[in-house]
From TrEMBL:
Keyword DNA-binding attributed: no
One Pfam family linked to the record: Phage_integrase
Entry keywords, A to Z: DNA recombination
Domain of life of the source: Bacteria
InterPro entries found in the cross-reference section: DNA_brk_join_enz, Integrase-like_cat_sf, Integrase_catalytic, Tyrosine_recombinase_XerCD
Protein name according to UniProt: Tyrosine-type recombinase/integrase
Amino acid sequence: MNRRGEAFEIESGLPESEVRAAAEATKAADVETPLRWFEFCRKYMAGRWRTSAAKTREGMADGLAAVTLAMVKRGKEAPSDEYLRLAFRWGIVPANEGVNPPTGLKSSYDWLTTAGRPVVDLVDTEVFEDVLYRLSYRLDGTPAAGDTYKRRRRALNTALEHAVAMGELPENPLQRVRRKHIGSNVVVDRRVLVNAVQARQLLTAVSYVGSWDRCRGRRLVAFYAVLYYAGLRPAEAVGLRLSDCHLPETGWGTLTLRETRPVSGKQWTDSGERHDRRGLKAREASTDRPVPIPPVLVAILQSHLKEFGTAREGRVFGNERGGVVGSSTYWRVWEEAREYALPLERVSSPLAGRPYDLRHACITRWLNAGVPIAEVARRVGNSPEVIHRRYHGCIDGHEEAANQKIERIMLEEGD
């Protein structure tokens, strides 16, 4: 015994008080520190990264970044919401783990890692109400678009299900919240649709954009033409190759679509390029989609290939260096072409405000020509349900035709 009358443990030779203290310290060390939100998100994204497309990665990061603004403790030294979001989007990329953040984001990144809330705080009603607010509103306090809200909620729900599976949460708190009703905003606005004359004027105007020797506009005339005459998405046109094109001397041709090149930031793609390389939207990676094209488009593509040849990898469209056509390029050219082609009062209108509106005009034209919805859907790579929902307000003459059919059957029945 020591002077205080304590017995010594034979194995360690320590008095009982020190043995008990050591045991308490060990027990405390065995209690796991609650997992913080940012670290959870980083691990979650790393697990999803390999199997996700670049656009999916970016969408997940955006949704979780919005939620993160509710999952950090605030104080006088807290960075702005804008910089916290930027720091989160940088830090969530697996390749950046263990790398020093950019100078402008260091303080915000440090705040995320030191002042972040534990994942379990999501069960706190006050915290989760702030999370729901962040899903629904932008940084300036204005309501987020319906599609933005849905995308953020979807990203959060999947992450929370993962947290429950990991044992970090007893249940998914989002499942207790009634889904916010978002009015349909996916119906195509008739005001964006161009008629045949306006379309031809716009394609001609594109050829006048930029100097003649640099061909900035002329090399994109056929690019916009495949959107208008074949209903391609811009990302599908970017990925189109010569081997995908059947361009006979006379009659209809065919574009067999196999690849799409959606635009994402370099940090989200595996290649480090801004354009991801993916299969067709809503299809298996190995499937293709043949699209018949009219003689006018066959002639435009033949003329384009004769003048410009193909870009790298056999792509039909390329920039001046043979690289992938960037979205910023075809947007700028289109904006300039609208100023050339449209009357001044129409330039500020929604008419053909985006290159994508040429695809809308194409689909509407086919529907108004009487092409069955199922066939239109097959050609443009949508489901018949989507075509019906998005374009039902753009089909002309169907009400009158339906009235005539009803009137005819009433006459036959003698009413």
